[in-house]
Amino acid sequence: MSVPLWLAIAAIGYLGIKHVRPPWWLVALLLLGGYLVAHSTLGPVVGSFIN
What we know:
Layout lengths: L4 H16 L3 H15 L4 H8 L1
């Protein structure tokens, strides 16, 4: 069974938020920070560490 990566990340994120219940400002900060890093010059560097 092949699951799209975005769907797997969304499901894990939903379950994490539901069970851990972090503050919403922390969730927003992590999402914004990840978006900004992905669209900066650090994106390829982070991507090479992940792969």
